[in-house]
Design brief:
Elements lengths: L1 H14 L1 H9 L5 H12 L7 E5 L5 H10 L4 E6 L9 E5 L5 H10 L3 E6 L9 H22 E12 L4 H11 E7 L10 E9 L2
Parallel strand pairs: 1-2, 1-4, 2-3, 4-5
Antiparallel strand pairs: 5-7, 6-7
């Protein structure tokens, strides 16, 4: 049964329009298209900004962000998984929610304009297990804002629908001037993932 499910997933993955397009254009992952949709609708990243990309590997969002900030800006990426070098991107291997890793990030840039977080837990397919894990990551990322996000900064994070989502979204709304929930076309149809776009960090 395991192999049947695995083969089905692989078949869907490689026939996916956005997977094909990412390979065609040399993008690190299909996630590139998700950020592109959010950028076009909300103008999140502009030239000269400093962007922190959490859960960056394999580098799709870092790749996209580096193009938008141009030579005037900076992208700092962090993940517990290795990531191949991306031009004009500083990569830190480690857990950004740990103090020693956060210190390394702050040594590169004390404050950032944008925090991107596309982290997801290892999915089991059981909502009662997956959702709490995701929300726990979400709160850790939100807590990071008070240490490194500039006033009026932007925070874009992946979450999942579930029993605790409303409470988490309320917590974000208290800290940012403007928030919205966004479901990219590039998200898989059967995925529960949604993105929160928060603009104007109140500090």
């Amino acid at each position: 049964m395991y192999y049947t499910c695995s083969n089905t997933w692989l078949s869907r993955h490689f026939s996916d329009k956005f997977v094909k397009e990412s390979k065609r254009f040399g993008y690190r992952s299909r996630a590139w298209f998700k950020l592109d949709e959010m950028q076009k609708a909300n103008n999140i990243i502009t030239s000269g900004m400093t962007v922190l990309d959490l859960g960056s590997s394999p580098g799709g969002w870092s790749q996209y962000a580096s193009q938008k900030v141009n030579n005037l800006g900076h992208v700092i990426s962090c993940d517990i998984k290795p990531m191949l070098e991306v031009s004009k991107v500083s990569f830190i291997l480690g857990d950004a929610f740990k103090k020693d890793v956060l210190k390394k990030i702050c040594k590169i840039k004390n404050k950032v304009d944008v925090i991107l977080c596309d982290i997801a837990p290892n999915i089991t397919g059981i909502t009662e297990i997956d959702h709490p894990k995701c929300i726990s990551i979400n709160y850790k990322a939100l807590n990071l804002c008070k240490y490194i996000l500039l006033k009026n900064g932007k925070f874009i994070i992946k979450s999942f629908n579930g029993s605790e989502f409303k409470r988490y979204y309320t917590a974000i709304k208290k800290l940012f001037k403007k928030t919205k929930i966004f479901k990219p076309v590039a998200s898989r149809l059967n995925s529960q993932e949604i993105y929160i776009i928060a603009i104007g960090y109140k500090v």
